[in-house]
Design a protein that fits this description.
The chain is mostly beta strands. The protein has three domains: 65-391, TolB, C-terminal domain (Neuraminidase); 399-520, Immunoglobulin-like (Sandwich), CATH 2.60.40; 532-671, Cupredoxins -  blue copper proteins (Immunoglobulin-like, Sandwich). The protein contains five helices and 44 strands. The protein has an eight-stranded antiparallel β-sheet. Strands 1, 36, 37, 39 and 42 form a five-stranded mixed β-sheet that branches. The chain has a five-stranded mixed β-sheet with strand order 38-44-43-40-41, with helices on one face. Strand 36 (552-559) and strand 37 form a beta hairpin. The radius of gyration is 26 Å and the shape is globular. It binds copper (II) ion.
């Protein structure tokens, strides 16, 4: 007898497909991790946000910002326009918008052209725009250089940025979800373009370099988005000839002009930490700073250096990184250790109205945040916008900078620490982890291990603390938390008590604790991250089922924008069910069935797992959980077998990937 098969809605369309195409949408949303209102209110007391209104009729999906003389901004939009904005610095802004150019193809940046006018990188070319007759509208639209493009929506061209040598640089995204992610040459590369339009390849292995910059010291860095081969968001240093890890770009390494020697065959699905692979493949360059996914953003974008010399607050010279999905801004401090760049990332500000794609620093150190939800959604609910961020001259008690030591870290602060709390080893918690370098989309934090604090030394002025820890590991990210630390005098806690330091190299220098041979045992690496084993994930049919396929099969799918394709499933109590959870979206999802009314609570508990969540498939230990799947990669599925509860009612099902549970929900209606 044929089993009755219940195919749900769009799932029917998948029957018979041999391969599941990835949905045409790169990152539809591990996005919705709501900021804490109280934190946002505190942050606003130090760095004040001001919304720059956008008139009705203008869709200001900001993709580039250039502050120009006269306290004006030139703003490019994803929709292909360039707007001149006047009045964006006013206390109560009522800005004037004048259209400078239109009809461009998704320009993603703008800069000044030495010969007059401005350069923008469109998808298909770098173009110079100039208003030569003074009517306020560009009348010259001149191609400087064509950019190869095949037509994938994911073939973004970021930039241009002016190099110290007068050339321009652009960074080209890889394509998404097709047989090759390099359907056109130089995908996944940073390129330099001379004023005469000649192209010089710089470096390969980029994935989605939504932001890049050259620092005041002449060093190039790009931000990248988590995805295939890229375990988490990252800030990576770029020098000519570098390979940053995404192999799609190696398709161009044999082209004339290439300065990268690796070829696609050099890269296989290593599934090891990147720094381990680098030991055998020295041409692979791990990032300077990992930006832990879902904690410090999910789609890291525009990056700028604070060049205000203190006008923007105490972090002069540090980098600021916008995040599109989580509508927040991070902060990064860098140092060069044994010729390798590394450093720490910190939370800075959240609660913006929409996803932040671009940052720019204007007059007086004022920061502008250009925004778009890009149809992918963002924590900030607006679809687009422009905001200004100013320092209020009030300085929070904050970790100013973390620097590496051979046996730990030095933390400096924006104001002196309370000595008693700072000398207490219990005020700190340190743990190391890293990410896998593999073909799959993103990586959970792996090889996580606590780093017990062995000694604390507070500086005489109270402005810095040196902590020595055990189990420090080269190549690892170290989460440094100081929840117990208090400010001298006021006793206030840190505004943000966590930093993530990527220890690419141990620095030379003196230790404050001797090398301890027993550490080797203490810090023994657990064999491997155990696979997610859970009694509540029944991957085989119970032995007492007469038919191993159950009485009913059901395919539940996903839709872009954090949705199950069938939000209401009706099924008879006690049915022996085979559930196939098929993830056709382009990000990670799971399926967790809970007792009626408890889906949200289970989602909240999953969020509370923090970095430990990934190893548990983001499923909390809870009596409210009935069954669940594993976290399913894009294009894959997970099948579980269970008996539908015997008590009729509306049972919640949710995706508990951090931030999804608020919207990615459904009801399993159990009927008598
Ligand atoms: Cu999800």
């Amino acid at each position: 007898m044929r089993l009755p098969v219940l195919f749900l809605a769009s799932a029917a369309a998948l029957v018979g497909q041999t391969t599941t195409p990835l949905v045409n949408n790169p990152s539809a949303a591990e996005r919705f991790v709501a900021p804490s209102d109280s934190l946002v209110a505190r942050e606003n007391g130090f760095w004040k946000r001001t919304i720059i209104p956008v008139p009705e009729g203008i869709v200001l999906e900001v993709s580039g910002i250039l502050p120009i003389e006269g306290r004006r901004l030139l703003v490019t939009t994803r929709r292909g326009e360039v707007w001149l904005v006047e009045g964006a610095y006013d206390a109560d802004p009522k800005p004037r918008y004048t259209l400078f150019a239109s009809g461009l193809h998704e320009p993603l940046g703008i800069t000044v052209a030495a010969k007059g006018g401005y350069y923008v990188a469109q998808r298909q070319e770098v173009t110079r725009l100039e208003d030569t007759n003074g009517d306020g509208r560009a009348d010259v639209l001149e191609t400087l250089s064509k950019l190869p493009i095949a037509g994938s929506y994911h073939e973004y061209a970021f930039g241009p940025i002016i190099a110290p040598n007068g050339n321009l640089r652009v960074a080209l995204n890889v394509a998404f979800g097709s047989a090759t992610q390099a359907p056109s040459p130089w995908r996944g590369w940073m390129l330099e373009i001379t004023p005469a339009g000649r192209t010089i390849p710089i470096a390969a292995g980029l994935r989605s370099p939504a932001g890049f910059l050259v620092t005041s010291k002449g060093e190039w860095f790009f931000t990248d988005n988590q995805g295939e081969w890229v375990g988490s968001g990252r800030l990576a240093h770029v020098a000519p000839g570098d390979f940053a890890g995404h192999p799609a770009g190696l398709a161009s390494s044999r082209l004339p002009g290439s300065n990268v020697d690796l070829v696609p065959e050099d890269i296989r699905d290593f599934a090891e930490p990147m720094h381990e692979v680098q030991k055998r493949l020295p041409a692979l360059k791990p990032p300077a700073v990992w930006l832990p996914h879902t904690i410090l953003g999910i789609s890291n974008a525009g990056v700028i250096e604070d060049l205000s010399e203190g006008k923007f607050g105490p972090f002069a010279g540090q980098l600021f990184v916008g995040d599109q999905g989580q509508s927040k801004i991070l902060r990064v401090s860098l140092e060069e250790v044994k010729g390798v760049w590394q450093g720490a990332a910190y939370p800075f500000r959240e609660g913006f109205q929409s996803g932040i794609l671009r940052l720019a620093q204007g007059e007086g150190g004022v920061m502008f945040a250009g925004q778009t939800a890009r149809g992918w959604g963002s924590v900030g609910p607006a679809q687009y916008g422009l905001e200004r961020v100013e320092w209020t001259q009030q300085t929070p008690f904050e970790i100013k900078e973390v620097r590496a030591q051979p046996d730990g870290f030095v933390l400096t602060f924006t104001s002196p620490v309370d000595r008693a709390s700072a000398e207490d080893e219990g005020s700190y918690r340190v743990a190391g982890f890293t990410y896998l370098y593999h073909r799959a989309y993103g990586s959970a934090p792996v090889n996580r291990m606590a780093c017990p604090v062995r000694r604390v030394v507070v500086s005489p002025d109270g402005l810095s603390v040196r902590i020595a820890v055990a189990c420090l590991r080269e190549g690892y990210v170290h989460e440094i938390r100081a929840p117990g630390l208090k400010a001298a005098g006021s006793g206030e806690a840190l505004l943000h008590d966590t930093a993530y330091y990527t220890m690419n190299r141990f620095p030379a220098g003196d230790r404050i604790v001797p090398l301890d041979i027993s550490e080797a045992e203490l810090c023994m690496q657990p064999a491997a991250t155990p696979p997610i084993v859970s009694a509540k994930r029944p991957v085989t049919a119970p032995s007492d089922w007469v038919n191993a396929e159950g009485e009913q099969s059901l395919v539940l799918g996903t839709l872009p924008g954090l949705k199950f394709d069938t939000p209401l499933i009706t099924i008879k109590a006690g049915t022996r069910l085979r559930l196939v959870f098929r993830n056709t979206d382009d990000m990670l999802h799971n399926f967790v069935l809970t007792v009626p009314g408890r889906g949200q609570a289970v989602g909240d508990a999953a969020m509370g797992l923090g970095l430990d969540g990934a190893a548990r498939g983001y499923v909390p230990e809870s009596a409210d959980v009935i069954v669940h799947t594993t976290v399913v990669q894009p294009g894959e599925s997970d099948t579980i077998f269970f008996t539908v509860p015997s008590a009729p009612g509306d049972y919640d099902f949710v995706c508990t990937f951090p931030g999804h549970a608020q919207i990615m929900t459904g009801i399993l209606r159990v009927t008598p």
